[in-house]
Request: fold
Amino acid sequence: MSSSLYDDVGGLAGLRLLSAAFYRRVLADELLAPVFADFTPTHLDHVAVWLAEVLGGPADFSARLGGHQALLRSHLGLGIRDEHRRRWLDLMAQAIDEVLPDRSELAATLMDYFEWGTAIAQEVSQDPAGTDLGRPGPTPRWGYQGLVH
Ligand code: HEM
Reply:
């Protein structure tokens, strides 16, 4: 109960498995594959490192991958539509089901984060590449009670 989401998903190894299960689905999906046309395997690893930081693990995305600012910038210009976001969430729910321990509170909490985070990604994606995002603040942290900060 007092453990972090990071521990409960199995740390970075668990998040890599989740990321791989998710992108296997994304790249086979006719709606999302074109959005991810520039996908590279580093993307998979970067998503795992981002999630580790958000879920209470090491702050490596901030330390070596550009932090919150870089995460937001990755989505500029993508023009994500509602149906893209819904499909993204469907595929993530399937990936969670496939690779994470069978714990409904953990899955529900992760999906709360993904509902919140995908809305931000969609909003940012309407702005063109190169838009100045100002100072977005530190990487958000998510726990069993929702947004920590
Ligand atoms: C909580 C929600 C999300 C998280 C945590 C997330 C995470 C990330 C991360 C970490 C990157 C950078 C990858 C890298 O550095 O290589 C990225 C890029 C990207 N994201 Fe997201 N993302 C989210 C939502 C979405 C949604 C809803 C879409 C579209 C439906 C999307 C589409 C993309 C695309 C197309 C890229 C660039 C791909 C590439 O560089 O090959 N993301 N995302």
In short: Residues 104-125 form the longest helix (22 residues).
